[in-house]
Amino acid sequence: MLTEKQIDFLKDVEKQSKETGFCYKMVTENIKKELFKYLDFDEKAKKNGIPAVRLSALGVQAVSTTGPVETVETGFEIDENVPIPEKIEGKRRGRAEKYPFGKLSVGQSFWTTDSLQKIKSAVYSKNKKIGSKKFEAHAVGLDDPRGEGVRVYCVSE
To answer: Per-residue DSSP letters for 113-148?
Structure first.
């Protein structure tokens, strides 16, 4: 967690480097150790022996009110004050559905070349989410109208 003094230091770097992108600021070894993730140094660009410094992407986030205030050992950044997006009625958030589970009725199926393991994972997830409709995935051979692959069947509504 950044201290108030460290945040003030980062805000000062941000303010001084706004116009040129970098600023020349005396940075002690202790500050380098504490704030190395939050600063970018250009050791080649020196002015009176002082290296050029600017905020890294993490540093920019740290000085903003919505940015992370802590980076935990797992590599995830803990954020504060990030607003929760409003739900959009009738629209899914995230990526589009890859498989046409919602369009299947009992007795219908679809065929794919994706691995059986991948499809079974998707079927398992869909069976848990939908609740009423149930699906099964089976490996199919050359006797299938589309050839070898995996076929997903809607087995109940």
So the answer is: -S-HHHHHHHHHHHHHHHSSSEEEEEEE-TTSTT-S
